[in-house]
Amino acid sequence: MGGRVTRVFRNFNVENRARREISKEKPTPAPRHPSARLDAMADSPEIKEDVLRKDDRFLNLLKDVYVESRDPPVRVKDGGSEHLPSKQKEKRLTKLGHLEGLDVKKVPKGKISIVEALTLLNNHKLQPQIWTAEKIAAEYSLELKEVNSLLEFFIPFTVQEFPKETKKAITSHKPKKLT
């Protein structure tokens, strides 16, 4: 509501106010201070002569100046080492088998790739007595605690097929029509 009221006052007689403002004579600018006119001084021959003249006394002083530059000794900060790796991390080749083209070739020790994780979870699910947590930890260079957590909390998807009679029971149910 308030926007409508302010818009009415703002737009009231806009054209007449604009014409009045445009038809006003422009104010004359204030006079400049004499020191602000540098281009007038640059045109004078005395200033040009002083600029172009070489002073022998200053040239001799300039020749006596010798500048020697040395870099300060480099100081290594204690806190700066967190950005640089302290040692090169050991990497191992992945054990992918027929899925070799789908994943990375080398991973750091103590880590596994996505394809390796899915493979070891599937192996453990299919043959848990062969693929125990200890064997997986030794095979993939992992810690036993992490492997136990992985096997406990991550389960690969399983495909379940329902018997045909269940499918018929589900499809035979007809929804009610609304009239």
From TrEMBL:
UniProt subunit comment: Binds calmodulin. Interacts with NDUFAF3.
InterPro entries listed in its UniProt record: NDUFAF4
Superkingdom of the organism of origin: Eukaryota
Residues making up the signal peptide according to the UniProt record: none
Membrane-crossing residue ranges in chain numbering: none
GO biological process terms on file: mitochondrial respiratory chain complex I assembly
Family: Belongs to the NDUFAF4 family.
Gene name in the database record: Ndufaf4
Residue ranges with Basic and acidic residues bias: 18-27
Descriptive protein name: NADH dehydrogenase [ubiquinone] 1 alpha subcomplex assembly factor 4
Cellular component per GO, a single term: mitochondrion
Residues covered by region (Disordered): 18-46
